[in-house]
Amino acid sequence: MVRILENKVELVKENLSYDDVLSKIEQATRLCYRSKRSETREGREKFLKNLIAVDHESIIEHGSLSFLITTDRACANQIVRHRLASYSQESTRYVNLSDLEIVLDHSYGEEEKERIVSRCIDMTLTYGSLGGDKKSTRDKARAILPLCTATRLYMTMNFREIRHFLKLRLDKAAHQSIREVAYQILKIMKEEYPVFVFDFDLADYEDIYG
């Protein structure tokens, strides 16, 4: 059995609230100047926005977010190259992938998907014949798995690195799959932590799902 999934990003609920993050980062920053802290959310947002606008972004390293990401192995290989972050990733050595899940981004047409699924069905048969259903031989069997194999990442990244990630991975030159991941992160940021992406416009990236 082969099942097609889409790229998906979820915000981990244990993250600090927006107001808590604003307060924490402002407190750390005000220390530099011995200046008075803002009394309102709007004041804290304005203070941080002004500093981000002049590239004084080291201050936002004091805050971070965690995301649960479902993507393909090829895309995950690119994501984990962003080393100013922490990752935990699903293991192909310990997880039985006999019922294979794959991730195909929105650039694939229906005929292409059918051809890929057909080949993946053959691969799952080989995976089983190599002992993929047994812990003792699973590390050998995983050699047959394709790069579109679904994988799940737990990613923790500070706000400065999130901005860096978005600048690189939303670019039209980036691969479609990682652009979809970046777009979903940006959408979460716009909804939950807007001041940190005030200079990004979702409308600029509508082609990703167009």
Q: Could you explain the architecture of this structure?
A:
It is an enzyme of class 2 (transferase). This is FAD-dependent thymidylate synthase. By secondary structure, the protein is an alpha+beta fold. The chain is built from seven helices and six strands, in the order ββααβαββααβαα. The chain has helices at residues 18-33, 41-53, 73-79, 110-129, 138-141, 159-169, 176-192, and strands spanning 2-5, 8-11, 64-72, 85-89, 100-103, 150-158. Strands 2-3-6-4 form a four-stranded antiparallel sheet. A two-stranded parallel sheet has the order 1-5. Helix 1 crosses helix 2 (41-53). The chain is elongated. The relative contact order is 0.19. The mean pLDDT is 96.
What are the SSEs and their pairings?
Elements: E1 2-5, E2 8-11, H1 18-33, H2 41-53, E3 64-72, H3 73-79, E4 85-89, E5 100-103, H4 110-129, H5 138-141, E6 150-158, H6 159-169, H7 176-192
Parallel strand pairs: 1-5
Antiparallel strand pairs: 2-3, 3-6, 4-6
Helix pairs in contact: 1-2
Keywords: Methyltransferase, Transferase
GO biological process, one term: methylation
Protein name: FAD-dependent thymidylate synthase
Report on the biggest sheet. Answer: 4 strands, antiparallel
Radius of gyration: 20 Å
Point out poorly predicted stretches.
Answer: none
Output the number of helix runs: 7
Percent helix, as a range, is 40-55%
Strands, total number: 6
The SSE string, one letter per element, is EEHHEHEEHHEHH
Measured by DSSP, the beta-strand proportion falls in 15-25%
First-to-last CA distance:
30 Å
Rounded mean pLDDT is 96
Shape: elongated
Structural class assignment: alpha+beta
Strand order, main sheet: write it out: 2-3-6-4
